[in-house]
Amino acid sequence: xxxxxxxxxxxxxxxxxxxxxxxxxxxxxxxxxxxxxxxxxxxxxxxxxxxxxxxxxxxxxxxxxxxxxxxxxxxxxxxxxxxxxxxxxxxxxxxxxxxxxxxxxxxxxxxxxxxxxxxxxxxxxxxxxxxxxxxxxxxxxxxxxxxxxxxxxxxxxxxxxxxxxxxxxxxxxxxxxxxxxxxxxxxxxxxxxxxxxxxxxxxxxxxxxxxxxxxxxxxxxxxxxxxxxxxxxxxxxxxxxxxxxxxxxxxxxxxxxxxxxxxxxxxxxxxxxxxxxxxxxxxxxxxxxxxxxxxxxxxxxxxxxxxxxxxxxxxxxxxxxxxxxxxxxxxxxxxxxxxxxxxxxxxxxxxxxxxxxxxxxxxxxxxxxxxxxxxxxxxxxxxxxxxxxxxxxxxxxxxxxxxxxxxxxxxxxxxxxxxxxxxxxxxxxxxxxxxxxxxxxxxxxxxxxxxxxxxxxxxxxxxxxxxxxxxxxxxxxxxxxxxxxxxxxxxxxxxxxxxxxxxxxxxxxxxxxxxxxxxxxxxxxxxxxxxxxxxxxxxxxxxxxxxxxxxxxxxxxxxxxxxxxxxxxxxxxxxxxxxxxxxxxxxxxxxxxxxxxxxxxxxxxxxxxxxxxxxxxxxxxxxxxxxxxxxxxxxxxxxxxxxxxxxxxxxxxxxxxxxxxxxxxxxxxxxxxxxxxxxxxxxxxxxxxxxxxxxxxxxxxxxxxxxxxxxxxxxxxxxxxxxxxxxxxxxxxxxxxxxxxx
Length: 742
Ligand code: NOJ
Hints:
Blueprint lengths: L6 H5 L7 H10 L4 H7 L1 E4 L7 H8 L5 E3 L4 H14 L7 E4 L12 H5 L4 H16 L5 E2 L23 H16 L12 E5 L18 H8 L1 H8 L4 E4 L3 E2 L2 E2 L4 H11 L5 E2 L8 H5 L5 H11 L4 E2 L3 H11 L5 H17 L19 H14 L1 E5 L13 E5 L25 H9 L4 E5 L13 H9 L3 E7 L20 H9 L5 E6 L7 H5 L3 E4 L7 H9 L79 E8 L3 E2 L4 E10 L5 E11 L10 E10 L4 E9 L5 E3 L3 E3 L3 E8 L7 E6 L1
Parallel strand pairs: 1-2, 1-10, 2-3, 3-4, 5-6, 6-9, 12-13, 12-14, 14-15, 15-16, 18-26
Antiparallel strand pairs: 7-8, 11-16, 17-19, 19-22, 20-21, 20-25, 23-24, 25-26
Helix pairs in contact: 2-15, 3-14, 3-15, 7-8, 7-16, 8-10, 11-13, 13-14, 16-21, 17-21
Bound molecules: 1-deoxynojirimycin.
The site of 1-deoxynojirimycin (NOJ) has 6 residues, from loops.
């Protein structure tokens, strides 16, 4: 793909003729080449310090942005030097990874994705933005919208799951929450769509690894969330660390100049990832740092994060003619435009008292709601949940994650403070005062411990209790950047603990906190009920307590498939059919193959002898305390033409006895197409609250363009013909109808 386009043709395609652009150009004309390169350099903060070197560089206009400085006094002082002491007074932009909250920590992004609630995620991002802005930060490196089909990859925690449509909807909601409708608003911060592209497809789920993604998959699966964020006005982009089909993203002009700027019309700026420009040399595509700087700037990476290749070599490269000054000018203009949009020139300083308090009750309430809606109930037998009101006196609360204020916050919480966390144990104690008592035994020091010395005490507590709530999973450090796992079972002796507790015969409710889907087969077997709570953040405790006590019903749905074993990976719902799809009839388990069975290919289908073809739980799955029934699915427009909107309705009824929310999901399949299309694709969803006995007609409107797919070498098209459409509570929904596109 890289060879198919010429860089020179694209360079002049950039530059938007707007008022902002004129302001930026005017300023640009006054800048020396050194000052221009300064705008392209982002350096790490010095943790509340300002060294003489930093002071001098800011004063000389040699720094455009600072990341990881969160001390307001220091931020304001650095800004003062930039604005008042540098020749042109161009303000700095302060950045930070505000990934799922600043001080008020929300569930990890994968957990938030389980809410399937864009409105709530927008609110969460807004809280994060306001809190971050209150110390002087005006830019976050979020949302991460890398499609992730591999739970071994530690950064799946930071993703929004495996589906392009869900990720697009939720990523856009986050970007909107951070940026509001005007970047200059008090409390708005610039968002960053990352990592462009394919970071989640790292080979073997090992972080930073190569990706090989054919054009078809790039356009149909990996690009859509990024395109959606561009359309929504996201201010910045970040490349992925990996190489995409051999070309490292940070030096990939096809991605940044052709796709992002020319095809999609992106008008913001691109920041490299941490030292990813320097790493072009390590990838082996640049002979030295000078070559790395040249490749990256020519590829359209406007700002360099952390490493100093731009600062050291760009001037020389311009002087030698290897990099046209127009390329530098373009990058500077991209950055200045966003600085103008943020209102940094008019309001460079931050006064925290202009903002609502950190961790305000309103912020905590949104965090609690997000944590509650993110919880996914995977099993509930023998009426284990909710705990029967007034009919229990003693709860055994057991496990390493029941009362650990730090671990429940999850990965990427640079500014989160465990001091403010409310743990499940604390929340249960608070809620049960005077009605019942808890007996807490940690049993294992960490999720990775093998020391079973405290098991007898835990078992004693279990035997004496009416029910046992076990808090198991992964500590936060077991997911996140560079924290990948090859095996997805519960670490340490947690499974042994669960098995021993189950033997007491008491009802066992397992709450799993983790940064990724875990292989929970055995854990399910030994639990009467099981909830996946991800890493639920500051207010995880009260949210979980509310669900346990039946003050609300679980409503989270899996944003990613849960494999039965890591050997099944990659396993995702929107796979292609193959010519020999597996079926119940064709599947033969390894133990059922007769000895010396003759080898044949007749009747063979696609599965593992030892792990079948089904995941543990499909994408979109999640139980409730009530029952939801779908009926009367109708396509009001069974024949549609281009430009039409498909209108479909379904009746959703709450036939149980608990008020609850359901996420109704709509999937389609293009039944005959020119290239192989997925067996199902999510195209719409609605979150609905229904009282017991209540039913409601849900209507979905699907513009026909939403049925388009990218045909390699040709572009997007909607193919005429039959489609099947399902609506239901998960990606295995059975209720279906067909419609035709003419
Ligand atoms: C590396 C990560 O890949 C990126 O997502 C993050 O924003 C930067 N470091 C800055 O911390």
